[in-house]
Design brief:
The chain has 228 residues and is mainly beta. The protein is built from 2 helices and 13 strands; from the N terminus they run E-E-E-H-H-E-E-E-E-E-E-E-E-E-E. The chain has a 5-stranded antiparallel sheet with strand order 4-6-11-8-9, with no helix packed on it.
């Protein structure tokens, strides 16, 4: 069958589909729902070009979505050492801690209580370190991060102003994911920083090149990952 302007199929006066149009190239227009009866549609484009196009399984699998909820759970440690953290698979460490009231786990508790220690809230601060100090989270799985959320000390003093985020697969060799322009002060407001990486890691740390005197630190840190 060959036509100049296409072939229109109608049922009870209603358009069903049109094979071919005046457009160049011509199209097939469908005006009703399509029932596949358990069959598949195959051999369509691997890479959709427009927002309204269908995406195949291969394309969806290779393009993970950003998860908008934070990846790190609330971590509490009311014992000496890091045994409580290892139960969840997440292990926190830092270059130093000022005291038990200002330990590294406080940063990952998702709550804040000023000056409260033993993992119930509060902040992490260094033990008088103002250069080349860090806080680190080891994740139980390899994940790809697209954003990190940070908050400095509640007092908005003893801030961190020169820092970068790093990642590793062995805890020894770290790759820089994001280096903040100087100065980038981490005060008492939550700030989000986008990270562009195609790789997955299980160690993530915030490395501080320099901070204000005397005990710079954080009150919150959260990672956001892709759905891989």
């Amino acid at each position: 069958m060959e036509t100049e302007h296409g072939f229109l199929l109608k049922t009870r006066g209603e358009d069903i589909c049109q094979l071919g149009t005046n457009d160049n190239p011509p199209e097939i227009n469908i005006y009703k729902h399509i029932r596949m009866n358990g069959k598949r549609i195959t051999n369509y484009s691997k890479l959709p070009r427009f927002p309204h196009e269908v995406a195949n399984k291969l394309y969806v699998g290779q393009n993970p979505r950003k998860i908008l909820n934070g990846y790190l759970p609330t971590l509490k440690s009311k014992t000496e050492g890091r045994r409580a953290n290892s139960k969840s698979g997440f292990i926190v460490s830092a270059s130093s801690e000022y005291s038990r009231q200002f330990r590294a786990e406080n940063v990952f508790n998702n709550i804040y209580t000023f000056g409260c220690g033993d993992g119930a809230g509060g902040e992490w601060t260094t033990n008088s370190e103002t250069t080349n100090f860090w806080i680190q989270i080891k994740c139980p799985d390899m994940v790809r991060v697209w954003k990190v959320r940070l908050r400095g000390r509640e007092s908005n003093t003893q801030r961190i102003f020169s820092w970068r985020t790093e990642a590793s697969i062995d805890g020894q060799t770290f790759t820089v994911l994001y280096e903040a322009p100087q100065p980038s002060f981490l005060g008492n407001e939550i700030q989000d920083f986008s990270i562009d990486t195609q790789n997955r890691y299980n160690y993530y740390r915030l490395f501080r090149l320099e901070g204000e005197k005397t005990n710079p630190g954080l009150s919150f840190m959260q990672l956001f990952i892709y759905s891989e």
